[in-house]
Write the structure tokens for this entry.
Amino acid sequence: MSTTSIQIVRCGSQSALGTWTSMSAANVRAGLARISVYPDYEDAQWSQVGVAMADYLDPALPHLSRFFKLGSEALKETLSPLKQQEIRVDSIPLLIGLPEKREGLAVDLKAKLVEKLGAVAKDYGTAFQIEFIRGDHTAGMEALQEAIRRLKTGEIEFCLAGGIESYLDKRSLHWLEQQGVLKCSDNKWGMIPGEAAGFCLLSSLQTTQNHGLHSCGELSAVSVTKEETGPGEVCLGRGLTRAIKEVVSSLPEGETVQQVYCDLNGQRHRADEYGYTVQNVHRYLDDPQDIIAPANQWGDLGAASVPLLMGLMTESGRKGYAKGPNNLLFTMSPDGKRGAALIKLNQTKQQS
């Protein structure tokens, strides 16, 4: 097996908390939230519902256009190191996590994204080899897995992996309510829908050194498993336990995880599942209760969860407030997929 070290060169993101990764990270750290009432939608009890909307976009902007705008701007930030260093790359694989099919999603979403995001590539003197991965919260984790596989073959220098999400469409909100997922009058333990886009620029250690690029950290390991809980059974976190154990097994003997990032979103069953999982993995974590789960600030980000959380991680290293180099990220999709990633950060400043 290849021992190629995969480096995170840059994370770029758009969220309700900011138009730049550093802005979102600063607002999360400050405890700020951007939850507002969604216009022109009421739940079954005729009450308005809260959403985390990117308020720098026109509220009337069509749902499909929100995917384009969020994705394009996130990609520009992600590609900025190549532009700054005047690095020309003929083509870059772009692996995009998207939500599973649901009410309100445009049937031509993929085709339109290829067209719109392709224009961004031209501005940076490259071309994208775009592939889509549907999988909701774990889609970005599968994109990372595929990026690692391709980079370790040595056939490519760079790879982009991430996801785009927006629940902010009346039909999507109604669908979420019908599924019993939306936080509303009849469901206090539901999730707050959000919207975001994020990508990570990845390369090998040798490539970053050859081009004089700064690395935010190493993407040490990624695992995606499946929770096989049957109908009516209590989910005991077996799938999530497997995913986490697979990635922390790459830690050197005696090392532990200093910080956990995840997509817990207010749904009680998710918190319960993590509680069961902790019983099996607590020895690998410095503090299992010390988790960063900002869904109550920027909403549930679905298919964009992984790159947005990675952006928070890399900013903590860049700004010097990370609790340590070893950081764990995990996600849980409604279809039973569970993902985990271990990131070893490069901390550039001393924590004040």
The chain has a mean pLDDT of 94. The longest strand covers residues 195-204. The chain has ten helices and twelve strands. Residues 40 and 86 are 46 Å apart (CA to CA).
